[in-house]
Amino acid sequence: MILTKYFDKFFHSNKSSGILLIIFVLVSLLIANSSLAQDFQNLLNTNIGTEVFHLNYSVSVWINDGLMAIFFLLVGLEIKRELLEGELSDIKKANLPIFAALGGMLIPALIYFSFNYNSEYKNGWAIPMATDIAFSLAIISLLGKSVPNSLKVFLSALAIVDDLGAIIVIALFYTDSIDWISLGICGGITIFLIVLNKLSAKNLLLYLIPGLFLWYFMHHSGIHATIAGVILAFTIPTNTSTVIMSPLEKLEEKLHTPVNFLIMPLFALANTNITFQSEVFAHFISPLSLGIIFGLFTGKVIGINLFSWIVVKLKWSKLPAFSKWNQMIGVGFLAGIGFTMSIFVSLLAFPNHIESQEIAKISILFASVFSGIVGYSVLKLKTN
């Protein structure tokens, strides 16, 4: 009962934040294509901080490396909760979204690589692997009760597994060089946090204060600082009680509002300020653009449904309750909304190539909008 209530809160929070994200994307696009474009870019490039601790970064870096670490902290908490007591806690319940997510990551990456294996854009193979939780759940929520709740749970679990995959990919493949001393300190802090967990320390400050240092040294180690949020999340203690909220549940509840209604909109505002210039559209049929568009729009739906069909036919799993294959196709298209995570990966894939980032962003935007429209239409037609 408590898990159903918690999922409802999680789902409706993502529904509202998804709508807000759409608004901020439109605002960002309007600014980028107005007379305010240069002033806004100057604001994003403005440095804030201090050189004393080597923490003098631009506004965009603080958003993408700092605030997004809090987003990944929340994602990590959600993954841990699902693994311990939610949809991913029972392998028989969890294996369908897990296999579906694997297919939804592998096939898009292969499609992208087939377009770019011999080009300068090959480092962006992970861009179409992502699914945006907030946007995809916001779209499916518009269908109301015409879509079974089990499909919404399936989509959210799939997106969570997808995020975990993105986190692993970022840690393994988008790290240029490593400062081993800083990384060693991160290891020491992580051990300390694990010991706190084993000692059943319940005070969240005992975890959050070392977590700040973990972020600092992770940032300076060369590994993307957002990984610190995930590591911290997995050390926060939880329990099996249905009456007393665990520290994990308390922190997750406190983070939902600022992450969904402040951090994600700010990320969208700062990273979708795409100026529609002829130079960008001239590359719209480049291997980079085609790999992203086909990866997200076709790769996701093919990968998710192919892998799901295989495990169902092998009787390793079952379709979500009261759902049909035609509805699974609609969900597969919705999973092609890669938006937030795809943009985030594109920034890491092409860190010093602004033009490639712009092409990637507009391709992600196009593929995500098209995937959302088609996914909604398929589900709407099949549920009437």
List the SSEs and their pairings.
Blueprint: H1 2-32, H2 37-45, E1 47-50, E2 55-58, H3 59-85, H4 91-116, H5 133-141, H6 149-173, H7 180-198, H8 205-221, H9 226-235, H10 247-271, H11 278-282, H12 287-313, H13 325-334, H14 339-349, H15 354-383
Antiparallel strand pairs: 1-2
Task: Provide a compact summary of the structure.
The protein has 15 helices and two strands. The chain is mostly helical and 384 residues long.
Characterization of this structure:
The chain is an all-alpha fold and about 375 residues long. The protein is about 75% helix and about 0% strand. It contains 15 helices and two strands. Strands 1-2 form a two-stranded antiparallel sheet. A hairpin with a 4-residue loop joins strand 1 and strand 2 (about 55-60). The longest helix is centred in the first third of the chain and has 31 residues, at about 1-30. The mean pLDDT is about 85.
Keyphrases for this structure?
single chain, 384 residues, mainly alpha, two-stranded antiparallel sheet, 15 helices, 2 strands, globular
Order of helices and strands: HHEEHHHHHHHHHHHHH
Strand content: under 5%
Distance between the termini: 29 Å
Q: Would you tell me the overall average pLDDT? A: 86
The number of helical segments is: 15
Can you tell me the overall shape?
globular
Total strands? 2
Strand order of the largest sheet: 1-2
Low-pLDDT segments, ≥5 res:
none
Classify the helix fraction into a percent range. over 70%
